[in-house]
């Protein structure tokens, strides 16, 4: 037998289970060629609470339906969904046992939105770890395996009213092989799934048996990096694309699986753990070394503000004794210095602005040395506010301008233009406030100056729109209205009470709504066809057939910025076309579509437009858009486009009496035209297309089928109230 690092657990069972022991020890021979100390941390039996422990579950109760925190916090006691199951592990006591059942009966549930279990007390780093024994069938979920260990991300399977966020620690196999690896997911920043093709594989390790294994997931804020361990050995790491945020998610902490909703029924049991879990621990430090020699952490240094105090601390892995720091190449920005004993860069930058590269060396007491090149960007103070939300006639307006890297006592001044009547600018706070009296669009040049004399200016436009647009409400002319409020973000009822018009969220995830201050919750769409809402087929209301004299289709929209999907730059693509609502889909069936597009735009802005298919059987598509049919533009073309990422009201009207289409932006007529191409609009088209919001469909999509994955037509941003009326409203 090969030599190995002793493990008391395995040695204690050697005499009773020698054949099993030989297999495990062999596995550990590979696993424990790890960085020094990693094996020792997991081989000494049950974990003991220390000053770094956030939560620890031994699962030693062995009876009843509760599992208590070993640190003594009663607020994070776990309770079985229905009936807890218990196993036994020699040398460790009882274990939590899980069986993939149709009702998730033995899953353990903790509190909702607890700071400890949401990792909000782990400020600089964290470790989530457990001992696991998987006993299920490999590749049991549609050709793969996904077993939840713990977390507050429920993978979209539970709680339709919950906002999907939080985190998740699991075993998975997305390569459809008979082996499992641990994985982590921070919904607000990125996923640590080794089989996704991201990150760096240190060495190939996986679980392919039904023995006990230690799994650990570490995250370090300094360089935003995930580290995954199997049996004490680092096998994978990845730096996430966005800084982590641990937001309120309203999903309970779950161990051993997910609380599945009954919709859709075929998802029941997917993602539940099969086997046993023991010694589940959350720590506010990284427990296991991620380097086998002295290594400076490759952190991205924060931007330095010109003439603003600065401080940033460097750190290392695998240090022996005391660290000495030194600048060995290049120069620090003027005004900054490096503390040789602490590794803290500090001071007040004096200029010039721009990027400065320099090389720093760290040496430990054993003489080990590492060098790393860092960059600090020095920026002058600047105004962050790039646009202003619209104000409403007769309603209070409040908006505070924001700066970055400016010193204290910032003073604000309007250099050119005049604020709308009723609105003032507080020179000391940068607050715009007041009640505007009339519709207007006001260009402004605003300056900020700090006490050190730094100045910056920005060109903004403050638009005042009709107060009647503030809230879209139901009345006798309303055919359908969705306002997105209420307890569920997955089932959105029509406020007129027609149950056949209820919208269904097509993705399996939970509530994707985000707040708009002072308004409520509205869907947040990421530009992917897996995100959107669907309604009925064959609806006279949705097909506008009940609008016998005229109609108005209107919505509030907020376009996204640089187009991305799950933090990826989509090959240079930008958001240029977004389906707001309608029955027109990628198969070119249906009847109509209200959209935003920058196609043929004179300045890159996006304008509302309409696609329409009229009479049966077939009719060429009508594309009604200010820049496709410029002869219909009313006023200046510049007034037809959306150039910012603020909320805007868009509306499309049609009158049978004069056969005229009209488009409105923020209550202002921007385009009108009679039905073009010599056609008479008769909406009696027969089709099988489904009403959708936020994404074009490729077929019937209720409960997640047939959506338009990353295809043209997916909206990127937010959509607010949508109303269909049987009159011209504007």
Straight-line distance between termini: 85 Å
> Could you list the spans in which at least 5 consecutive residues all have pLDDT below 50?
1-37, 159-163, 563-571
Q: Rg to the nearest angstrom?
A: 30 Å
Q: Quote the beta fraction.
A: 35-45%
Shape: globular
Extended strand count: 53
The count of helical stretches stands at 3
**What is the CATH level 1 assignment of the largest domain?**
Mainly Beta
Describe this entry's structure for a reader:
This protein has 730 residues and is mainly beta. It has four domains: 49-283, Jelly Rolls (Sandwich); 295-379, Immunoglobulin-like (Sandwich); 382-468, Immunoglobulins (Immunoglobulin-like), CATH 2.60.40.10; 479-725, Jelly Rolls, CATH 2.60.120.200. Helices cover 3% and strands 39% of the residues. It has three helices and 53 strands. A hairpin with a 5-residue loop joins β34 (440-449) and β35. The termini are far apart.
């Amino acid at each position: 037998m090969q030599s190995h690092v002793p493990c008391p657990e395995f040695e204690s069972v050697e005499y009773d289970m020698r054949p099993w022991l030989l297999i495990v020890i062999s596995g550990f021979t590979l696993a424990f060629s790890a960085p020094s100390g990693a094996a020792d941390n997991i081989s000494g039996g049950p974990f003991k609470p220390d000053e770094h422990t956030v939560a620890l579950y031994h699962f030693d109760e062995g009876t009843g339906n509760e599992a208590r925190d070993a640190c003594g916090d009663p607020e994070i006691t776990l309770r079985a969904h229905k009936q807890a199951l218990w196993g036994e592990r020699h040398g460790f006591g009882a274990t939590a046992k899980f069986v993939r059942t149709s009702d998730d009966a033995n899953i353990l549930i903790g509190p909702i939105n607890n700071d400890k279990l949401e990792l909000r007390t782990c400020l600089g780093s964290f470790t989530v770890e457990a001992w696991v024994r998987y006993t299920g069938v490999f590749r049991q979920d549609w050709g793969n395996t996904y077993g939840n260990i713990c977390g507050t991300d429920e993978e979209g399977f539970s709680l339709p009213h919950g906002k999907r966020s939080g985190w998740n620690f699991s075993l998975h196999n997305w390569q459809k092989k008979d082996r499992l690896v641990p994985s982590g997911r921070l919904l607000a920043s990125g996923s640590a799934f080794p089989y996704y093709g991201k990150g760096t594989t240190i060495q190939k390790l996986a679980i392919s048996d039904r023995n006990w294994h230690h799994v650990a997931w570490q995250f370090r804020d300094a360089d935003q990096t995930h580290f995954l361990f199997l049996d004490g050995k680092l096998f994978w790491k990845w730096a996430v694309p966005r800084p982590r945020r641990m937001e309120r998610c309203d999903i309970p902490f779950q161990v051993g699986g997910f609380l599945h909703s009954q919709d859709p029924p075929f998802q029941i049991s997917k993602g539940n753990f099969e086997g046993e879990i023991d010694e589940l621990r959350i720590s506010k430090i990284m427990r296991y070394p991620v380097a086998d020699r002295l290594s400076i952490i490759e952190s991205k240094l924060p931007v330095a503000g010109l003439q603003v105090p600065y401080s940033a601390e460097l750190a290392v892995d695998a240090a022996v004794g005391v660290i000495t720091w030194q600048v060995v190449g290049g120069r620090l920005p003027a005004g900054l210095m490096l503390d040789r004993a602490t590794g803290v860069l500090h001071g007040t930058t004096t200029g010039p602005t721009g990027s400065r590269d320099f090389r720093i060396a760290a040496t430990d007491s054993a003489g080990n040395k590492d060098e790393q090149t860092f960059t600090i960007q020095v920026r002058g103070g600047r105004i962050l506010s790039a646009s202003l939300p619209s104000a409403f006639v007769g309603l209070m307006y409040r908006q505070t301008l924001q700066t970055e890297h400016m010193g204290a006592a910032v003073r604000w001044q309007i250099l050119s233009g005049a604020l709308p009547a009723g609105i003032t600018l507080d020179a000391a706070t940068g607050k715009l406030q007041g009640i505007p009296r009339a519709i207007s669009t006001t260009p402004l040049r605003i300056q900020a100056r700090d006490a050190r004399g730094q100045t910056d200016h920005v060109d903004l436009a403050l638009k005042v729109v009709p107060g009647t647009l503030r809230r879209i409400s139901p009345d006798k002319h309303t055919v359908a209205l969705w306002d997105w409020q209420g307890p569920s973000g997955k089932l959105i009822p029509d406020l007129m009470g027609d149950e056949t018009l209820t919208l269904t969220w097509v993705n399996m995830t939970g509530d994707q709504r985000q707040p708009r201050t002072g308004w409520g919750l509205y869907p947040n769409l990421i530009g992917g066809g897996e995100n959107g809402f669907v309604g009925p087929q064959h609806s006279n209301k949705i097909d506008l057939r009940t609008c016998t004299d005229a109609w108005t289709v209107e919505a509030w929209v907020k376009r996204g910025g640089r187009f991305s999907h799950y933090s990826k730059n989509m090959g240079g693509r930008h958001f240029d076309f977004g389906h707001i609502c309608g029955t027109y889909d990628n198969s070119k069936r249906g009847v109509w579509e209200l959209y935003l597009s920058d196609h043929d735009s004179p300045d890159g802005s996006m304008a509302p437009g309409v696609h329409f298919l009229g009479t049966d059987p077939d009719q060429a598509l009508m594309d009604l858009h200010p820049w496709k049919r410029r002869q219909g533009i009313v006023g200046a073309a510049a007034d037809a486009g959306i150039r910012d990422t603020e909320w805007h009201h868009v509306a499309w009207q049609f009158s049978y009496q004069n056969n005229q289409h009209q488009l409105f932006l923020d209550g202002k007529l921007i385009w009108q035209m009679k039905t073009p191409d010599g056609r008479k609009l008769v909406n009696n088209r027969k089709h099988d297309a489904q009403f959708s919001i936020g994404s074009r469909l490729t077929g019937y999509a209720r409960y997640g089928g047939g959506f338009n994955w990353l295809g043209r037509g997916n909206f990127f941003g937010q959509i607010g109230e949508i109303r269909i009326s049987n009159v011209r409203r504007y």
